[in-house]
Amino acid sequence: MSRLVAERDLEFLLYQVFGAEQLSQYPRYSDYDRESFAQILATAKGVAEDYFLPHFQQADAHEPQFDGSTVTTIAALKVAWQQFADTGLLSARQDYEHGGMQLPALVHMACNAYFMAANPASAAYPFLTSAAANVIRAFGSSAQQQLYLPAMLDGRFAGTMALTEPDVGSSLGDLTTKAIKHRDGNYRIKGQKMYISGGDQDLTENIVHLVLARIEGAPIGVKGISMFIVPKFRLHEDGSLAARNDVQLAGLLHKMGYRGTTSTVLSFGEQDDCHGYLVGEAGQGLSYMFKMMNEARIGVGLGAAMIGYRGYLESLAYAKDRPQGRAPTNKDPASKPLAIVEHADVKRMLLQQKTYVEGGLALCLLAARLVDDHEANHDEDAGILLDLLTPIVKSYPSYYGPKANDLAIQVLGGAGYIREYPVEQLYRDNRLNPIHEGTHGIQSLDLLGRKLWQHQGRGQKLLFQRMQATLQQAQQHSQLQPLCAQYGQSLQKFMHTVLTLGQTLQQGEVDKALANSAIFLDVMSQYVVGWLWLEMAQQALASSSADDPWLQGKLHAARYQIEWELPLAEAQLPQLQSFNDSWASMQRDWF
Predict the structure, then answer these.
(1) Which residues of 520-557 are buried (b: 16+ CB within 10 A; e: fewer)?
(2) What pLDDT is recorded for position 264?
């Protein structure tokens, strides 16, 4: 079995749960069938296992180096980048007419799952490049598209997004990077950005930064933010490299994980000659960047799920092979020790991991299917539901993926925290994801403060309708009826909580309603993932024989989610409804 992802599980999610074959009914995907999907997935798996996985630990041990003028990365990373580009995966989601594959987002997400499990740090470079190319395709001028996209999609140029500043973190409305109109009609950019993943490297001949800046004279706040293409090297009209732009690497940052991805501080305009090219309309930069950020948020969720998934598979393999101890009732010291997978507490830790990571992967694939329904089938409701779920897709795997990795370390015991085994690195890599692309707290403010109420609450209505439909279908299976009853009763309590919070927001008590938003996000995530586990359980029952161990594993994971995780979430509903202010009322001088 692959140590990256259980392939039967991935195929089950793709074809039984999310109906990948049905996508060929959409004109955009009419050239595809299950066989062609399988071929593309096999290619992705092969590249991930042959070129990304082998240098997973090497990239961690040998971080990129900066000698004051040049960044150097390990040779294996360059080979992996080129292999990824040569297989066409950089342009997989692009139209045929632009040299792409027109691959469904659902299948593309499954391909990316292999890379995130194999080597998330190395995978960050192509994923950021694809996302930046999508922004230019969506909002750039035809001239900008012709100049930058061919080179970005064939691997000659890489892409980044540059938002964060040293004194301005997630509060982008306060950014200070300036854009000064020049007589040539373009702009000169001046400012500094930090935590820019892939901001410099030696993989590509050029790097295309998408930079948020404020045009001189623009209003303060988010309405004054514009987006600019700022290349490391400027280009001639034919696309060939021209002079070096005034973008300087001020230094590399050294992270606890994702060490193979350069994390940079970039200075723009130290010589007052940093050329920037406005993307779309002035003042619309943040809305444009949200296309990349939302794509990246779903990508972060996938990465967190898959890093957790790989840790689960590593600890499962170890637990099956490691003999230690005996059953509590066995008092014979001469008897053969059990494999630790037979001990109840190890089973608990493995089952928790399984539930977290398989549920997280399902959540990410659900988001991808909604992208397909929205973009390829012009389903407005799918877009509304995707918008609602995006904070959860980002945050649930980012919260529970590291918990799974922590459990994996515990399963391995002393072997878990030494570098000879991969699970300690997987934990370090995954611990970055709760912060990547907006923290848990920021996502929770977005969910409770905006997403639930957009479109007159249409998103939550669509979600609850889907949950109720799954309950009705799952109740037809006698094995699932107790779980359905427990989930259904608990869901009613959650819906009442949503109503209470909504009424408080409508009354203008915003600070009161949002003070516990982080808890609300975690609670709502548990209900969404519980729904998905019921859906997976009923689909597994419909497609498997009763004596299939794989089926029993799915049923037990669903049972664990509903009987253990959901009650923990439900227990917090009274505090949410009563607006408990334990921490909100804490004063700074009391700490």
Answers:
(1) bbbbbbbbbbbbbbbbbbbbbbeebeeeeeebebbbeb
(2) 98
344-377 helix and 549-560 helix, angle to the nearest 10 degrees = 90
pLDDT for res 173: 86
**pLDDT value for 168:** 84
Rg of the chain taking only CA atoms, in angstroms: 24
pLDDT tens-place string over residues 227-273 = 999 999 999 999 999 999 999 999 999 999 999 999 999 999 999 99
User: Cα–Cα distances in Å, from 16 out to 5, 29, 359, 552?
Assistant: 17, 18, 15, 17
339 class by beta-carbon count within 10 Å (0-12 exposed, 13-18 middle, 19+ buried):
middle
Please give the distance of CA 577 from its chain centroid, rounded to a whole number: 30
CB-side neighbour CA atoms (13 Å) of 340: 19
> Which one-letter DSSP state was computed for residue 246?
S
pLDDT at 520: 98
CA angle 113, 115, 116 (to 5 degrees): 65
Q: Is 375 exposed, middle or buried (0-12, 13-18, 19+ CB in 10 A)?
A: middle
Model pLDDT for residues 507-555, shown as the tens digit of each residue: 999 999 999 999 999 999 999 999 999 999 999 999 889 899 999 999 9
Averaged over 478-501, what is the pLDDT?
Answer: 98
Q: Where do the domains of the chain lie?
A: 7-153, 158-283, 284-438, 440-582
Contact 304/397 with Cβ under 8 angstroms?
yes
Exposure of 54 by Cβ count < 10 A (0-12 exposed, 13-18 middle, 19+ buried)?
Answer: middle
β 233-235/225-231 pair status: unpaired
> Helices H, strands E: what count in the chain?
19, 12
Q: What confidence tens digit (pLDDT) does each residue in 39-72 have?
A: 999 999 999 999 999 999 999 999 999 999 999 9
- Cα separation, 42 vs 36, in Å, equals 10
Q: Which whole number is the average pLDDT over 132-154?
A: 97
Query: From residue 236, how far is each of 152, 185, 242, 563 by CA, in Å?
Result: 16, 16, 6, 63
A 10 A CB-CB count for 581 gives 13
In angstroms, the CA 465 to CA 470 distance is 9
Q: Which fold has domain 284-438?
A: Butyryl-CoA Dehydrogenase, subunit A; domain 3 (1.20.140)
DSSP 323: B
> How is residue 398 written in tokens?
């980012």
Q: Which CATH number fits domain 158-283: 2.40.110.20, 2.60.40.10, 3.30.499.10, 3.30.10.20?
A: 2.40.110.20
Nearest CA to 299 out of 352, 371, 231, 239 is that of: 371
User: Class of the 7-153 domain?
Assistant: mainly alpha
